[in-house]
Amino acid sequence: xxxxxxxxxxxxxxxISLLLVALVFLLCICFGPGxxxxxxxxxxxxxxxxxxxxxxxxLPAALVGLALSASGxxxxxxxxxxxxxxxxxxxxxxxxxxxxxxxxxxxxFYAVVANxxxxxxxxxxxxxxxxxxxxxxxxxxxxxxxxxxRTSSSDSLTLLLVGVVVSAVNGALLMxxxxxxxxxxxxxxLNYMMGTISxxxxxxxxxxxxxxxxxGYFPLLLAGKALNIGSLSDTEAISLGVNIKTLRQLCFISAxxxxxxxxxxxGPIGFVGLICPHICRSILGADHRxxxxxxxxxxxxxxxxxxxxxxxxGTLFHGELPVGVITALCGGPFFLLxxxxxxxxxxxx
Length: 349
Hints:
Layout: H1 7-30, E1 31-33, E2 41-43, H2 48-79, H3 91-110, H4 117-125, H5 128-146, H6 156-180, H7 189-194, H8 203-222, H9 224-230, H10 234-239, H11 244-266, H12 272-284, H13 288-312, H14 323-344
């Protein structure tokens, strides 16, 4: 009975996870660059100017980490494969293609509405829908390309391989679209593709992304028990009363929504949705009711620490590194280690 998830244990898990995030938040808010112009790394409770500067980096990092880790849990449950995450399957890059297409379409209008702050905000926030459309379109494409004609289903290895290829194609599309864009619309594509949390994120963008993230995250929380059953074979899950088709649609839509929200705040950041769910799974077990609490909050803490590191060490690297560099340096070897263990244990499927 030790593994039974009772209400007190569930609430305790929430409390411990939130306490971890709160401690990381306090550490990050106390450690970082000073006010622009001073160019000094400081440790200690920030002044009011420093606080506003740091909070608008820390909160987006927390939301992005939460979104990517929750998406990773959902996709790993959907594919029954711990190697899946939004970055590996191409969902992040597909969402980025949607954002860049939106910028190309509305770019010429920015000069027209330069003196109207409301219209400029409306144009900027409008990128959320193209980001969502890009994520969903990529998911559909990956599933269609990976589907077997004989069985009308997809195995997890094929989905992963197709996702990697689609991700590479999306990266090429991003380069092409950026090259075709007028000079005033072009992105710093290298930094964007590695994932960068900008200090220019507005409170409006942050709030809107948070609302969209909640729309994707809370349905998954309610479906934790169904995800546990869905991790069995289709036949077993159906015999236990789970509608597999509906569950997969839920995972698919929720992961797309949360990935789109993260793309608006940071661009594509890799491996967060792989590292944090797997670490939490190794500690807490495979119960998705636990994973959907611990992994997203661990992802928030991890990305807050990573972004604070790059913001505080900017002078050491002649400018800030994209935070995606840190996650890739951690996640790349981690992915290879998981792949090796899966092969040693009898295959990828």
